[in-house]
C-alpha cells in the first residue's frame, strides 16, 4: 500500500521556506520607506558533496588549472563545487588515513577541512569505523587490541578535528560488518565477536565522549528491514544516534519517487533526522541489476553519453525535489562532482574534462535559482518592515552601506528584527 | 570464505550418539552373563512434522480409512506419521483459532494435542503472534486494545494448553511484521507503532509469565542479516529467547549443504539452540526463483513426478544429515507429510493417494534404521555390563520378563546403572 507520489513543489515550499517579516531599525528607530537589499547567503539544507578531489589543491600540492592537472581537482572545478554545495565530506578511511600505525595524515586533512570550513561549508568526516578500507595492520593484533586501537583512533581524530569537523559518519555498514566475507579484516573480526550493538555502542561512546558537540551518524547502504532491525536494536539499547545516514548509490538506475519516499518513510519513523549520505546517479549506461556488490562491476571504460546526461539531469532534479519535499531529510551528499571517481562511473555533474553536464546546470538552477533569493531590492513600509518568502538559511540585509545577517530557521511565518 | 562441507556421518556420530556402558543389577546384585534385550524407544532429536491434517481424526469427526476420507488425514497416513516423527506442530493461527472473538477452538485443539502427546510426541503450538492469518476482528480495535487482546490471547492459550503444549512459536516473522503491506491487519499496525523489540518483549513476557516451563521460540523466514540484527537487538534488550526458529521452505530448490551450514553457523553464534521449524522440499518442478513471496505462486496443479521424487529423496537425506551434523540444531519440523498442503505443492513424503514416496522410505531408513537401535539381544559380562553405541534418546532394557527404561542424554561416553 505505497502512498501516492505528491507534487513535490508545494511540499518543498511548506517544509523548506519561511514567510519572513523583517522589521528594520537604525539607531533604535524604524527605518521607514527605505530601499534595502536582501540576499541569501547560505541554505539551511545541507547540499553536500565529497571533497576528496580537492585535498591536493587545498594543500597547495599540485598545479591548479585545468590543462596542468586533472580537471577533477582543479581550481575551476572547485569553483563549480562551491557554487553548488555547502557541505563537504572528507575521507577518513583508516587504511588510507593511517597506513602506518602512529602516522596519521592529520595535518594534511586538517588543512583540507579548514579550506572547506573557511569557504563556509559544514565538513563531515567519513568514516571512523568500517570493515572495508580499514587499516591492514589491525590483522596483526588480538581482538582486544583491535577494539582498543579503534576506540583510540576515534578519540584522537574527533579531538584533533573538533571545531573544524563536528560531524562524523561514526560507523559504516554495520548490517554486514560481522558477516562480510570478501577478505579478512580486523573490524569484521571484532564485530563478529562482540556483536553489532556493542560495536555501535563502543564507537559512538568514544566519539561522543571526545567531542560532545559533534553530530554523529549511523550510516548504511542496506535499505532493507535489516537496517531497520539494527536501528531499533541500537535505539532500544539506549545508544544516542543523532542522524540516520542512508546511502543511495544508483549505479543500477534511479530509484524513482515512489521508492525514495517509501524508504524515507520507513526510516523517518524513528524520529531522527535523515541524511542521504552517498548518492550517485550515472549519465552513462546503467549497471546490470544482477550485480549484487557494486564493487564487482569492473569495466575498462564507462563513458558519459548525451542521452545519459539528459536522463541524469532529469533524475537529479526529481531526486533532489523528492528529498526536499520530505521534512525528515536534512542533508544530501552527492558522491563526487566529477566523473571517474568510484568504479570509474560517469556519476559526476562535471565531465572528466571539467565541463559541466546538464545535471550541473539543472541542479544549480534550483539551489541558486528557484530555491534562492539573490540580492533583491525591497522598500520598507512606514513601520520599517519588508516581507518576503525565502528558503531557510542565512541572509543578509544591506542599507545605507551597512550589512547585517539574520537567519530563517523554521518553516512558516517568521518575524525577524534587524538593527542596522 | 565459506567453510568446506565435511562428511556428515562422523559428525552425526560425534554429536548425536553415546557409547553406553550399562550396568544391570537385579535385587542389588549384578546380572552376570545373562541375555538382555535393549531397544530404543525415542529419539532425543526432535523429528517433527505439522499435525494439521489429523485434527478431524483425533476428534473422531470423519471416516478414518483411505477410500472413505482424504488420505492425508486418514488413520493409515497417521500410522506413517507416527512411525517417522516424535514432534508435532499444531495450528494456532489466530484468525482460524478464534474467528469470532471469545469463541476459541480450544477443546478441539486440546483433544488433538493430547492425541499426539498420548502417542509420545512433543507438541508445539504455532504461532501465538503473527500478522498473517491473524484475527480479522482486530482491525476494529484501537492499537491499545489490539495489544491487550494479543497479550490476553497468549496468556489464555499458553495457560489452557500447559502440560500438553509446553513449546510455542511465540511470534512469527517479526522482521517484516511492521512493514508488511499486502493487506491491512491489526498486528502490523501495533508493531509499526510500538517497534519490533517492544513487540517481542510484550508477547514473550506474556507467554513466559503464563507458562514459565514452556520452551519459547522466535521464528522467522528471513535468513538474511535482518534476522541477525533483530536477534541481536532482542538479546541486547534482555529478552529471554529459548530457541531460534529458522524456516526453510525450499519450494525454489534445495539449499544444499554449504548454504545450510553457513546459515546454521551464522545463527548458532548466539549460543541458542536452533530449530528448523518449517521445511519443505518438493518432489515436482521447482518454483521459479523470481517469485519473492511464495504465496504469489498460484498454479492449477503442481504434480509430483518420478524424477522429482528421486531428487527429493536424495535431498531429504542430505538435508537431515546436514542438520544432525551440526550440534546447534535440536529439531527439524517438516511442513507436511502429505502432498497438497500449502500452495498445493508436492512437498510431502506421502502422495495425495496416501502412498509413501521414496523420500519417506529414505528418511525412515535413517530415523528408524541407521540412527536407531531396534530390539537387540546382548549378553552381560561377569560384572553385569553390556556396551553399545546408540543415538541419544530413550531406551528400554528387558530381561527375565522385566523392562526398565533409561535415557542417553549427552554425546560421548555414558555410564548407566539399571536395576531390573
How would you describe this protein?
The structure is a homodimer of 420-residue chains. Chain A is α/β, with parallel strands linked by helices and 420 residues long. Chain A folds into 2 domains: 8-41 and 375-419, Immunoglobulins (Immunoglobulin-like, Sandwich); 44-370, TIM Barrel (Alpha-Beta Barrel). In chain A, 33% of the residues lie in helices and 25% in strands. In chain A, the strands form 3 sheets. Chain A has an 8-stranded parallel β-sheet with strand order 6-5-4-11-10-9-8-7, covered by helices on one side. In chain A, strands 1, 2, 13 and 16 form a 4-stranded mixed β-sheet that branches. Chain A has a 4-stranded antiparallel β-sheet with strand order 12-3-14-15, with no helix packed on it. In chain A, a hairpin with a 2-residue loop joins strand 1 and strand 2 (29-30). Chain A is globular and about 75 Å long. The termini of chain A are far apart. The mean pLDDT of chain A is 96. Chain A binds chain B through residues 1-2, 175-176, 178-179, 181, 184, 192, 195-198, 222, 224-230, 232-234, 236-237, 266, 269, and chain B through 1-2, 175-176, 178-179, 181, 184, 192, 195-198, 222, 224-230, 232-234, 236-237, 266, 269.
Q: Any low-confidence stretches of chain A, pLDDT <50, length ≥5?
A: none
Number of strands of chain A: 16
N-to-C series of helices and strands of chain A: HEEEEHHEHHEHEHHEHEHEHEHEEEEE
Strand order of the largest sheet of chain A: 6-5-4-11-10-9-8-7
Sheet with most strands of chain A:
8 strands, parallel
CATH fold group of the largest domain in chain A? TIM Barrel
Q: What is the CATH top level name of the largest domain in chain A?
A: Alpha Beta
Amino acid at each position: 500500500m505505497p502512498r501516492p507520489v505528491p507534487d513535490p513543489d508545494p511540499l518543498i515550499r511548506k517544509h523548506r521556506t519561511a514567510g519572513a517579516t523583517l522589521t528594520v531599525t537604525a539607531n533604535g528607530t524604524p527605518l521607514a520607506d527605505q530601499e534595502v537589499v536582501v540576499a541569501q547567503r547560505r541554505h539551511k539544507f545541507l547540499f553536500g558533496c565529497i571533497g576528496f578531489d580537492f585535498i591536493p589543491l587545498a594543500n597547495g600540492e599540485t598545479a591548479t588549472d585545468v590543462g596542468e592537472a586533472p580537471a577533477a581537482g582543479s581550481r575551476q572545478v572547485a569553483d563549480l563545487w562551491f557554487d553548488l554545495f555547502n557541505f563537504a565530506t572528507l575521507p577518513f578511511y583508516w587504511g588510507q588515513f593511517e597506513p602506518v600505525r602512529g602516522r596519521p595524515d592529520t595535518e594534511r586533512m586538517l588543512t583540507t577541512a579548514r579550506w572547506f570550513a573557511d569557504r563556509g561549508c559544514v565538513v563531515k568526516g567519513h568514516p571512523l569505523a568500517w570493515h572495508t578500507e580499514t587499516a591492514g595492520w589491525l590483522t596483526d593484533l588480538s581482538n582486544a587490541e583491535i577494539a582498543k586501537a579503534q576506540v583510540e583512533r576515534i578519540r584522537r581524530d574527533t579531538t584533533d578535528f573538533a571545531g573544524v569537523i563536528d560531524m562524523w559518519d561514526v560507523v559504516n555498514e554495520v548490517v554486514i560488518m560481522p558477516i562480510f566475507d570478501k577478505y579478512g579484516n580486523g573490524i569484521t573480526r571484532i564485530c563478529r565477536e562482540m556483536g553489532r550493538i556493542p560495536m555501535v555502542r563502543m564507537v559512538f561512546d568514544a566519539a561522543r565522549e571526545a567531542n560532545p558537540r559533534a553530530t554523529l551518524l549511523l550510516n548504511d547502504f542496506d535499505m532493507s528491514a535489516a537496517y531497520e532491525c539494527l536501528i531499533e536494536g541500537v535505539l532500544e539499547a539506549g545508544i544516542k544516534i543523532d542522524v540516520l545516514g542512508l546511502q543511495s548509490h544508483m549505479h543500477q538506475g534511479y530509484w524513482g519517487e515512489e521508492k525514495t519516499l517509501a524508504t524515507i518513510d520507513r526510516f523517518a519513523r524513528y524520529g531522527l533526522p535523515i541524511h542521504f549520505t552517498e548518492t550517485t546517479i550515472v549519465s552513462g549506461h546503467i549497471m546490470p541489476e544482477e550485480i549484487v556488490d557494486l564493487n564487482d562491476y569492473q569495466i575498462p571504460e564507462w563513458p558519459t553519453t548525451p542521452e545519459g546526461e539528459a536522463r541524469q539531469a532529469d533524475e537529479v532534479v526529481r531526486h533532489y525535489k523528492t528529498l526536499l519535499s520530505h521534512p525528515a531529510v536534512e542533508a544530501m551528499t552527492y558522491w563526487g562532482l566529477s566523473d571517474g571517481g568510484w568504479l570509474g562511473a560517469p556519476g559526476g555533474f562535471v565531465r572528466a574534462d571539467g565541463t559541466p553536464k546538464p545535471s550541473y546546470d539543472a541542479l544549480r538552477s534550483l539551489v541558486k535559482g528557484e530555491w534562492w533569493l539573490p540580492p533583491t531590492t525591497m522598500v520598507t513600509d512606514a513601520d520599517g518592515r519588508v516581507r518576503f518568502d525565502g528558503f531557510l538559511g542565512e541572509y543578509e540585509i544591506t542599507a545605507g552601506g551597512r550589512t547585517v545577517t539574520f537567519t530563517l530557521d523554521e518553516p512558516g511565518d517568521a518575524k525577524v528584527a534587524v538593527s542596522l
